[in-house]
Amino acid sequence: MPELPEVEVTRRRIGPLLVGRRIERVLTTRPSYFFLTPPARLRAGLAGREVRDLARRGKYLVAELDDAARLVLHLGMTGQLFSARATSPRLISAGARSALHPEEQLRFEPDAHTHLRLVFADGGPEVFFRDVRKFGKVLLLRRGQSHPRIDRLGIDALELSGEALFAASRGRRAAVKALLLDQAVATGVGNIYADEALFRARIRPTRRAGSLARRDCDALAEAVRAVLLRSIETGGSSIRDYVAPDGADGAFQDERRVYARGGEACLVCGGRIRRVLVAQRGTHYCPRCQR
DNA sequence: ATCTGTCCCTGGACGC
DNA sequence: TGCGTCCAGGGACAGA
User: Fold this and answer.
1) Distance from residue A279 (CA) to nucleotide B5 (C1'), in Å?
2) Residues ≥6 apart with Cβ < 8 Å to A159
3) Is A3 a catalytic residue?
4) Please, which residues have CB within 8 angstroms of residue A121's CB and are 6 or more apart in sequence?
5) pLDDT reported for residue A26
6) Which of A92, A127, A192, A233 is the least buried, fewest Cβ under 10 Å from its Cβ?
7) Are strands A79-83 and A127-131 parallel, antiparallel or unpaired?
8) With 80 as the cut, is the pLDDT of residue A102 above it?
9) How far is CA A98 from CA A85, A103, A114, A176, in A?
């Protein structure tokens, strides 16, 4: 599931395929939950526009257009933003893949889950946004227009400080993991990196946020930044659906210490990793290392 | 203001 | 082999 590192890796690699190119036309699927801006308005608003810049805000990508409108994308759980030249079995659902000859199983063809298809005036490679579960979002903001989803976001998780975390945690009786997942506190951390950061900081995810000492917050903020940076370096986590825009897998899943390792041995103490629910999310920790 | 539970969606894993 | 059931979860929202 794309969190800050996956979105940042996507930004870096899809940037060259967007910035400086003029969109000629846009193909979409039917109106759905996925489109915060209705598809017809999206198609009309994007046709003829040139992309000037591609930025990231937490887990959102923000493409600046030549008319000062902004195209905002969120990859949700299963979103994939990629080049027409990308090849990866992750871009094809298993059912469809099984019907293909082996040599065709890497080649992507737009399917019912390909909600956005950008065709460029230069005739070069198209860009696709595919999202099987439609938890992703597409939003076109006119010049100067804002949106509560964006306005609500806290500071970027790469800039999270112990001081800020400590301040945000005061009076909070909910679990510290819920605090990390709260995008109004810091934006970009999701389920994988919350668990990984808490493990590295040796803090139990279920602990009440308000009980953290300042030094705990310093350690946790440091762990959040470190784990995100390390994941960006390795190309993100390809656990289920995530692929980079060129179809490449990330490698951070091989450096996970707790996420989706319930029942397995802790890499530090050998104890058994436990899986519980916190804030309705699967949560993984080592009962011995994280007190 | 904060917190919890529910909902959106669909493929894949698993059990019989 | 094939069907049914459950699970994954980002984030908005309603209600406590």
Assistant:
1) 10
2) A225
3) yes
4) A21, A22, A23, A24
5) 97
6) A233
7) antiparallel
8) no
9) 21, 12, 19, 43
**Residue A132 CB in 7 A reach of strand B:** yes
In the predicted model, is pLDDT for residue A104 greater than 90?
no
The reply to whether the CB atom of residue A12 sits less than 7 A from any atom in nucleic acid chain C is no
- Judge whether residue A133 contacts strand C, using its CB and a 7 Å cut-off: yes
The CB-side HSE value for A219 (13 A sphere, CA atoms) comes to: 14
Q: Is the CB of A134 under 7 A from strand C?
A: no
- The distance (Å) linking the CA of A281 with the C1' of B6 is 13
Own/partner contacts of A49-53, CB < 8 Å, gap of 24 or more, are: A49/A22, A49/A23, A50/A20, A50/A21, A50/A22, A50/A23, A51/A18, A51/A19, A51/A20, A51/A21, A51/A23, A52/A19, A52/A20, A53/A19
Query: Given this model, what pLDDT does residue A84 score?
Result: 94
Nearest to A1 by CA among A289, A222, A241: A241
